[in-house]
């Protein structure tokens, strides 16, 4: 799209790809450009080595986005994607580059909560890791059961989980979000409880509230256009310059 009114960048979860959001484009206005991203190791980047640290992944995405910041844009990320979207926003602000008009953070607790509850899924045995992924949902069972498919996915999963689990907030670093932002999650998500989601209110004066839905970690997968519609509302409000109003 040569001159979109706005761009929305969508960042996927650990072990996932742009396919997590493949159906979302139809729910947004036709003059918006919906940008589906892939971390190295999947999609069109399947031949590249998966990235194992947050700083490198953020630099990778930053290089890809630089020529696409000429229009108003917004970020939405789920789980690992929320970490990436948050860090990208901070990196753009630090470099005095255009920042998103709005940031959507889904399925990831606030930095303090993440630091207080360390996990090590990337160190599980192959069988334990498959069992954990089956419990979380989001990965087709036939992929977990097929030795060949699992052999392709396992290195990506381990790299992504290691990236997420090894991230820690620097003591002297400001993690406050410099743009309007909204948090999304689920009531029964074992990886981001409602309390951990609500903790994001501490990380910026432009916090627009926390929306909690029924379901687990992949709460949005069965909700059709409900989440995209809410994202559209938030982006429209930001584009219109609406003041941030906390919501429950």
Automatic annotation (TrEMBL):
Organism expressing this protein natively: Streptomyces griseoviridis
The organism's taxonomic lineage, starting at the top: Bacteria, Bacillati, Actinomycetota, Actinomycetes, Kitasatosporales
Coiled-coil positions: none
Alphabetized Pfam families for the sequence: Thioesterase
Record-linked SUPFAM superfamilies: alpha/beta-Hydrolases
Name of this chain's protein: Thioestrerase
Family: Belongs to the thioesterase family.
GO process terms (BP): lipid biosynthetic process
Domain Thioesterase intervals: 7-222
Gene3D superfamilies with a match to the protein in the record: alpha/beta hydrolase (3.40.50.1820)
